[in-house]
Amino acid sequence: MAVSELVAQNVVKEFRDKKKTFLALDQIDLTVGEHEFVSLLGPSGCGKSTLLRLVAGLDKVSEGKILLRDKEISKPGRDRGVVFQQYSLLPWMHAWENVAFALKKDRTKTKQKKKELAYHFLELVGLKGFEDVYPSQMSGGMQQRVAIARALVYKPNLLLMDEPFGALDAQTRKEMQDLVLKVFTEARSSVLFVTHDVDEAIYLSDRVYVMSAKPGRMAKEINIELPKPRDWNVQLSENFLKYKREILVELQNQKKLK
Amino acid sequence: MGKLRLISASGILLVLAAWALVTYTGLVDALFLPTPTQVLLEAKKQLDDGTLFLDIEMSFYRILMGFVLSTIFALPIGVLMGTSKYWNAFWEPLVGFIRYMPAVAFIPLSILWFGTSDLQKFFIIFIGVFFQAVIMIADNCKTVKKSVVEVGLTLGLNKFEIIKDIIFRAALPSIWDTLRTIWGWAWTYLVVAELVAASSGLGFRIMQAQRYLSTETIILGILVIGILGLVTDLLFSYLAKIMFPWREREKISN
Ligand SMILES: Nc1ncnc2c1ncn2[C@@H]1O[C@H](COP(=O)(O)OP(=O)(O)O)[C@@H](O)[C@H]1O
Ligand SMILES: [Mg+2]
User: Fold this and answer.
1) Which tens digits make up the pLDDT trace of B14-28?
2) Does residue A253 fall inside a structural domain?
3) CB atoms within 10 A of CB B114
4) Would you give the DSSP letter of residue A227?
5) Which-ligand-closest: CA of A16?
6) At what angle do helices B168-196 and B215-243 cross, to 10 degrees?
7) Which PROSITE patterns does this UniProt record tie to the protein (chain A) (predicted)?
8) How far is residue B230's CA from residue B183's CA, in Å, rounded to a whole number?
9) Of A67, B37, B202, B223, whose CB is crowded by the most CB atoms within 10 A?
10) Ligand 1 in reach of A195 Cβ (< 6 A)
11) Chain mean pLDDT for chain A
12) Would you call A91 and B170 a contact, using CB atoms and an 8 Å cutoff?
């Protein structure tokens, strides 16, 4: 791992209201290397989304630092792409316009070029022929495909995804996982991926951080050394099950400590 | 759908039938309530001598001006109020206070300032609807989902672009509904203004008719106002369908 795309050092996040402060993240360290796919795994409420939002620049850290290629972040920016869990398409735009909208700030490209790029990336995520469809006409899976195309089209260095398939049915979810593997291998992006699905984390990642809740902490870091490119069969391999056991034991221990 | 239309039509027909019944049978004196025939004859008379269209034209011009003036100012102020806490802090107490002052109470003052000119009508409509419109448009913007705003942020849009390209666009259908509601209120204020001080227009015609106990003219005026209101309301919803084709589309299957 030569270059670090993302480094988080001693990140603390407190939510304050008038009555009390709530410690959501405690002393988080995290790195994502260049071209690396890293997952954050943990029980609901352990602060995965909070951490992702900090990296996205949508919230501010209470303590600590978040560095993107050695530069401290202060606000959202086009060096990062975000895919939210749901409802993130602009409903008044066709699919291709939603994708092209991500290129709005790009002054180097003509309108025609932006449209071509949008069409290209929609094809990449398997939506050829659905360019002129409104989000309200699309299923949840199709909408997430458009959201992924939108996050890819402007080639951010780091992609952040917060349980992007959480709202999808099991079958669509499988399809989307394979889509992600294919697309991100091709795009050679660095990815920080949030999920609470153990299989999904192992299947997709080069490295998995397991978090624990109350307060949100890093509990375990596991390198996933499974052959690439991966396909669905890997999920039955001995190694895969070894990782799965390791993670499940960790999560189980967390519960016992409560 | 056809069934519902039938039910809607029967509601209107029922009222018409009741009206016909009580008037043709002489149950109610024609002085108080004219028969449908008398109203139709009055309509024909006014169509022939041109007064009806002149009145409609006059009233429509006034309401349109009052409405457009109010909207031109209410739109930017409302959108900014709904998107900036500083604007909101400045305008909210002011607008919140004034909008509870009854516009009708401003009529004497308005006559003092503008006489019985068209300006006075614009002013009353403005007082009546501007402040309501501002608050409602601000609310339309405030209810835009945070998630779409954050999409804009993560794509690197600045504050102005977020307001223009995301919040305003997302709020537009509900802002349109607000304008439709406001348009209805503008009618009421127009007629009130014309009843009190005018020498033309539908409200004036109604007021003048009272002096000559010409109830058929009054009923005709009320009906015409109702029909105009209905027609413009339908126009608003028709335009909404054209402008916002992305709402309520059928799902397609992949
Ligand atoms: N804006 C906020 N204000 C107060 N508490 C919050 C806020 N956002 C999240 N939290 C709290 O922080 C904790 C972590 O939330 P979150 O990051 O959404 O967890 P996860 O995504 O892992 O399910 C939760 O207990 C949640 O209630
Ligand atoms: Mg979450």
Assistant:
1) 999 999 999 999 888
2) yes
3) 16
4) -
5) 1
6) 170
7) ABC_TRANSPORTER_1, ABC_TRANSPORTER_2
8) 11
9) B202
10) no
11) 92
12) yes
| Per-residue CA distances from B104 to A237, B12, B128 (Å) | 80, 31, 8
Work out how many domains chain A is built from and give that number: 2
A27: left (phi over 0), alpha (psi -120 to 50) or beta: left
Given pLDDT bands bounded at 50, 70 and 90, which one contains residue B250? low
Q: pLDDT tens for residues A96-132?
A: 999 999 999 889 999 999 999 999 999 988 899 999 9
Q: Which residues are CB-neighbours of B234 under 8 A, at least 6 positions away?
A: none
Give residue A2's pLDDT.
Answer: 59
Whole-number Å distance between alpha carbons of B97 and A185:
60
- Establish if A241 belongs to a structural domain: yes
The fraction of chain B above a pLDDT of 90, given in percent, is 75
Give nearest CA residue, ligand 1 atom 17. A47
Are both A9 and A71 inside the same structural domain?
yes
How far is the alpha carbon of B251 from chain A, nearest alpha carbon, in Å?
Answer: 4
| Fold of domain B56-229 | MetI-like fold (1.10.3720)
Of the candidates B153, B157, B161, which has its C-beta nearest A58's C-beta?
Answer: B153
pLDDT for residue A56 is more than 90: yes
Q: pLDDT higher for A201 or B115?
A: A201
Q: What average pLDDT does range A163-192 have in this prediction? A: 88
Q: What ipTM was estimated for this complex?
A: 0.90
Q: Please check whether residue A82 is in contact with residue A147, taking contact to mean a CB–CB distance below 8 angstroms.
A: no
C-alpha to C-alpha distance for B59 and B51, rounded to whole angstroms? 12
Residue A190 domain flag: no
Please tell me which of the candidates B151, B157, B246 has its beta carbon nearest to residue A134. Answer: B246
| DSSP reduced 3-state for A216 | strand
SS3 label, residue A6: strand
| A253 & A167 share domain | yes
Cα(B73)–Cα(B135) distance, integer angstroms: 12
